[in-house]
User: What shape does this take?
Amino acid sequence: MMSIRALLLGLLLAACQPPPGNSVQPSAPPAIDEPRELSAVSFNIQFLGLYARRDHEALAEFLAPHDLVFVQELVAPPYEGVYPDGAPFRPSERAQAFFDAMAGHGFSYVLSPEDTGRGTRLQLNSSATEWFVAFYRADRIEPAQDLFTGYISAPRAAHRQFDRVPFAFGFRADSEDLVFISVHLRPGTGPVNRSRRAGEFTAIFEWIDAQDGPERDYVILGDMNIESCAELAAVLRLAEGYISLNDDCRATNTNVNGPRPYDHVMFREAYTREEIPGELDVIDLVTVMRPFWNQADGAYPGDPYIHNRFRQYYSDHHPIRFGILVDGVDDD
Assistant: This one.
């Protein structure tokens, strides 16, 4: 299996510009002759589409060696389109810049049809609501039209159980299929916020249990805002058989003054361990972005680390990476 270090040092894949929109490539990934590993990343890019300083090309170049990239905190649509109620999108040039950069490195994408947020209003193009997106390499993995893709609950605004309703993405590589549930759960310390997060986890676990099809490979990933190992242990007690690949609670936020194990990849080990047999890599964003820095912008905000500058150029979260083993046999 290829390590994250080898992936980051590998040659960047050739550029291939897909058309804008919720693009799904018509050709399926080829059948495999021997087991291979896909590289998957979950990355909260703080307020993607908001900050003018964002170095979209550097982020896309860093992400280029990976096969599947889930992004949280996209705050505006990148291209023209319409909401489910028929209202037109207000595309953001700053969001488009990131999508165009990813397309330039060969990625297609699946985008949620609308935003979701804690308040009573949507369609805001602000940090009050968020979209979910998954970027993928169509020659390696493809969206699975027969697997669930969409928000797991309604309404999308002012939901009783969720601050932001999670979005599920169905993908298939050869005969291997998985449903990834991308989340951004309630932030904050204290018993009220922990209780809210526990309720969000319970609702996700219950949604998975309620699915009556043969598919059992559900992977929950993203910014879960878990504050400590004690909270993680309490979350895993809510549903039998789930594990987190970040079970040692490594910090996934970039702020060195308040490290927290916010980001995780969770699944039922009995169902999904064969597909995700390895461990989680927390990629040090401060380290990996240093070679991309443009000296004309002044001193690199990671030397020393300046939180408010660094997050605007890159993010306030480290990406997390895990491998997906594709061996041509689905265990469902």
Q: What stands out?
A: The first strand starts at residue 36 and ends at 48. The CA atoms of residues 118 and 163 lie 4 Å apart. The helical segments are 4-9, 56-63, 93-104, 190-210, 229-236, 269-272, 285-289, 307-313. The mean pLDDT is 91.
